[in-house]
Amino acid sequence: MKEFERNQLLEKLYTGEEIFLVYGTHKYLIQGYGNNLDQSVIKVEDYGLDTPETVWTETKNTSDETRDDFLKQPLFDGLTVEDAFSDIVWRDDY
Fold first, then answer.
1. Nearest C-alpha neighbor of 39 from the set 8, 69, 75, 74
2. What is the rounded distance in angstroms from the CA atom of residue 40 to the CA atom of residue 32?
């Protein structure tokens, strides 16, 4: 993932847009959204498996808190997105 794409990822996590990433044999759909309780949610699904599987979901009070928690998660074969970003391929769609 190029630096520009890394910045886009962080922005999209903040705004809640859908993100499509490929890492190794895994295809990830990352969705962020809020609800009526002023909470922020990020959901990560792996579509590289036979059946799509939710691999991580987090709900916090703010988008910043949710994004920061996502960045700390070892979702990419035990690596965080920061550690794996040079091997992550950004996709515009699935």
1. 69
2. 7
- Please give the backbone phi and psi of residue 85, each rounded to the nearest 5 degrees, phi first: -60, -25
Q: What is the pLDDT of residues 8-66, one digit of tens each?
A: 887 887 777 888 889 998 999 998 876 555 677 888 999 887 778 999 998 888 878 88
**Do strands 89-91 and 19-23 pair parallel, antiparallel, or not at all (unpaired)?**
antiparallel
Which has the closest alpha carbon to 41: 19, 21, 10, 70? Answer: 70
Cα distances (angstroms) measured from residue 10 to each of 1, 16, 53, 91 = 12, 10, 23, 15
